[in-house]
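REQUEST FORM: STRUCTURE PREDICTION
Request ID: SP-0412
Submitted by: Lab K.M.
Chain count: 1
Length (residues): 297
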Amino acid sequence: MRNKIAKINKDEQKPSIHYGFKEARAITKKYAKSFYFALQFLKKEKRDAVYSVYAICRLIDDAVDESKKYSKEEKLKKIKEKIEAVYKKESIKSMLLSSFQQTIYKYNIPKRHFDELLEGMYMDLNKSRYRNFNELSLYCYRVAGVIGLIMIKILGYKDKEAEKHAVDLGVAMQLTNILRDIKEDYRRGRINLPQDEMRQYGISEKNIAGNFHNKNSNEFLKFQIQRARTYYKNATRVIKLMKDGNARFVVGLMKELYSGILDAIEKNNYNIYKRAYVNKTKKIYLLLKVVSTGDYL
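STATUS: Completed
RESULT:
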């Protein structure tokens, strides 16, 4: 009788988790188009797992960027409590959290990664300027490098060295987002650029506010783009250390798609007033490039 009840309870949970993964997929599709595009080449089981993690990361990020009912600190605290409840295997009513809970236990994802991610979000609340790249790189590690560590737990890897290069890829992608979003970040009161390097290139906050398209800003952006590309180059190693061919292909494609944003900034002649993005045609081109080279298979 007890086994029968256990089976019924297990069956009752399945629809909840199914809809949780479905919700996570919708969130990923809406907010991370290039990421979503690349994930379509993963096996469904791992694809759903990545969706569930991305959705939680998105909720954490949104808590910092927009919150009406609660203060940003309160909202982050509530999300932190939910993640702790998930790791303590407490009863979860949310379908989205149920799918997240299944993922973290199935792939043995350490809680410390989400603790670091939350620390990065608290930095967003309390720190709007970065004195130098050392400070900025810590922020990039917390909000993106640890996501690289989370993702390779799902995708699978064969050597611990992969962890270092997964961080490189996360940092590279975050640096890319920072360069793409200079104007948007400024409107939110943030300048996620090294202050000492801004001074070195003769750039002030007033320039970012209204005149960030001149010789100095172009040279500054060239320097920042080259740094990001160095991280992408170092990140190539993680792909070779992954177990699964599909996973190698997807991570390789993500690397190409996100570094393609840097190409778009250059194509826009370093004009940050124009949105830099990878259009559908370029995505197909990069997909074919990854297939044709065979480096990621």
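NOTES: The mean pLDDT is 91.
Reviewed by: T.R.
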